[in-house]
Amino acid sequence: MGRVGFAAAAACAVAACAVAAALVGRRVRARRRWWRAVEVVGEFEEGCATPLGRLRQVVDALVVEMHAGLASDGGSKLKMLLTFIDTLPDGSEEGIYYALDLGGTNFRVLRVQLGGKGSMILSHKVESQPLPEELKSGTSEILFDYIASTLKNFVEREEDDSQQKTDERRALGFTFSFPVRQTSVSSGFLIKWTKGFSIEDAVGKDIARGLEEAMTTKGLNMRVAALVNDTVGTLALGHYYDQDTVAAVIIGTGTNACYIERTDAIIKCQGLLTNSGGMVVNMEWGNFWSSHLPRTSYDIALDEESPNRNDQGFEKMISGMYLGEVVRRVLQRMAQESDLFGDATQNLSVPFSLSTPIMAAMHEDDSPDLERVRQIMEQNFQMPHVPLKTRRLIIRVCDIVTRRAARLAAAGIVGILKKIGRDGSGRSRSKSQRTSVAIEGGLYTGYSNFRDYLNEAVVEILGEEVARNVILRVSEDGSGIGAALLAAAHSLDR
Ligand code: ADP
Ligand code: MG
């Protein structure tokens, strides 16, 4: 080989080395970026940890807050609102009752026919539709007008003329799932909106009277006999079938719980309460807060950018409105720190663009190549080529968020049981006492991973022996049917 040939060969070798080095460099950088994404998930997982010890701390913190909220108004972030409901339906109710269920994603109208002792619910019909988004921020008049019209159309479809022409004023159950300060079973003032509603002129108004006015305008001869929230409706339906039902929990768009409290434990309203038995207390547990809750930088950012900052802290970790959004925030951080999704990273930047049902669909993808996850990332975020290992990482994020949410909700349930002496601690009698908790809400009923985590955690905290006597029972459509049952049970109150 001549000198020229040698030089050329050497130059080629150098170039090849450079290309190889560049390739290796790129691969090393890519791997490093990948590991950074894995690290982001690892850190998040650590921040979300809910070992048994921590869950027990949450249980105890909830009990302390329940006491404080029962002692005085403003004594706790838990409002512990009185419902004035001291009788729950027991199966003896009779007649036809209507109910409305407003409080989240869907608006429902219901008709229930009750047969009295022995025959229970003879028939029930529910019509459900998404509440038009614009009604959530208009005026109370527009909202009540819409509700009254929908109800009127429903009644006209359900009844023949002779039934409609009755002079009797019908008792209606109204499930209104926002914090309300009740003044009786059938009236109450809106304290504040939650779950993305913001109709300013309704705050401080009597919700039942507002609806009655709209119904009168529409020519509907009905009065609100029971103004309740979804938890109370769910408790009513649970109790109708199973008299050992002592509490109800909602886990849907939002989350909340109510339970039966001894009247003498409700210190803040002793003068008001005549009955010496029990009364249903609406906890408004979505607003529960404790330093023991495992909070991450993602939760803090979500809260800071929310319209209700420093509010509904428990709800923001648990309910369907937020879980998908927490996942989105983690994916966005992974993308920013690792370039995992290339140019499509910005598609992850739109708040609330990952809904909880979509997140659940990814989490529940059990196909070997995670095809559903691939499709969802392509359709929702225009990311057509998400590799399998990244899809696995996405599922892990969904799992972390859901597991934390379900376990915290479980701790909340055990907290209630502890407050009323049904958690098996203390007196031994309660170990064998049967206790039912009614549960409703799309997150619990529709998302099996969530449900399994919650059920498992209740057993983990209570221990198997005690947990055997604690029944978590889905009260399907309980929030609405229960309101009709309460309207029946309280139809003669006024
Ligand atoms: P609402 O809370 O509006 O009364 P639901 O109890 O039906 O209504 O709950 C609806 C919410 O539950 C949805 O907004 C969603 O966050 C969540 N959800 C419903 N279905 C599923 C599902 N299959 N997987 C996960 N979350 C779900
Ligand atoms: Mg609901």
From TrEMBL:
The keyword Metal-binding does not apply. Residues 42-240 form the Hexokinase N-terminal domain. Pathway: Carbohydrate metabolism; hexose metabolism; Carbohydrate degradation; glycolysis; D-glyceraldehyde 3-phosphate and glycerone phosphate from D-glucose: step 1/4. Keywords: ATP-binding, Glycolysis, Kinase, Nucleotide-binding, Transferase. Its EC number is 2.7.1.-. Gene3D superfamilies: 3.30.420.40, 3.40.367.20. GO terms for cellular component: cytosol; mitochondrion. Residues 247-488 form the Hexokinase C-terminal domain. It comes from the Eukaryota. Transmembrane segments: none annotated. It catalyses: D-glucose + ATP = D-glucose 6-phosphate + ADP + H(+); a D-hexose + ATP = a D-hexose 6-phosphate + ADP + H(+); D-fructose + ATP = D-fructose 6-phosphate + ADP + H(+). Pfam families: Hexokinase_1, Hexokinase_2. One of its GO terms (molecular function) is ATP binding. It is an enzyme of class 2 (transferase). GO terms for biological process: glycolytic process; hexose metabolic process; intracellular glucose homeostasis; response to glucose. Belongs to the hexokinase family. PANTHER family: HEXOKINASE, HEXOKINASE-4. This is Phosphotransferase. It comes from Ananas comosus (Pineapple).
